[in-house]
Amino acid sequence: MIKKNETFYAKILLFGEYSIICDSMALTVPYTHFKGELSFINDDKYTNLDFAAESNKSLREYAIYLKDLKEKGELLFEMDFDAFEKDVEAGLYFESTIPQGYGIGSSGALCAAIYGKYSQNKIIGDENISNQDLLQLKKLFAQMESFFHGVSSGMDPLNCYIKNPLLIKSKTHIEPVGIPREFSKNGGIFLINTGKPGKTGPLVNLFFEQCKEERFFNLIKNEMIPFTNGCIKSIINGDINEFFGHLKSLSKFLLTNLKPMIPNAFHDVWKKGIDSGDYYLKLCGSGGGGFLLGFTEDIEKAKKMLLLQNIEIVPVSKFQ
User: Fold this and answer.
1) Counted domains in the chain
2) pTM over 0.70
């Protein structure tokens, strides 16, 4: 019997996009609606052959990147390259429903899958994992994912690998965390599909360039990070009123100061949510396209308000 490959899920960074680069807290959760697994191109499995061929081509390029790191003595984990290269030659690809460029961890799931299958002496990921092992995984995943984005915090593949909500308290402390179910009777989290993928690299580079300006960097440190940390602490503590207060401030900050990351067609939609209080939007990943992330205290009312603007939402979860 052929052993089935492990499935890895998408992730949603609820809070911490961009600000985590400047050492804010962050909160990331698995999103099981989308998933992926390593597979092989063959006649026995139904798949999109063009997609599989393109994925295999990408893995060939990725193998060169990883092997170069290994030959330089820079790869941060032991890897069975013979098995990986043999499988790539045999048609290995990543069978995935996770949309690429939508900020929910398509490359993160791929990195997690490759580490899970081909690493030697791998760190086992479960809810009892130590902070030290989480930090080590985050570091090596950042190296793995940098091939796709130019720079990576390592959090996406880490969450995909651990498959549990993770709280990043600081650069030196990460821990699995529970999020209270009974948070808001009618509230929920949702996604909005902007209709086009985003490109992480250019936007992250833009953010780095902006941070070189003292005024912008001070705004991140003195406003964005406190708003972000406030959202995280209050959602974990189950304080609904405090949470939406911080969230409104964060949503306004993003619209004012990170507008290039928000597709132009959604600026008014974003502002209407803030003005009405019926929903609040924020970035889901680096932005520029992909999904937007929304929160509301009344999911049915938010649906109706957005439908009036010709926007359908994708529910992620209810708070309760």
Assistant:
1) 2
2) yes
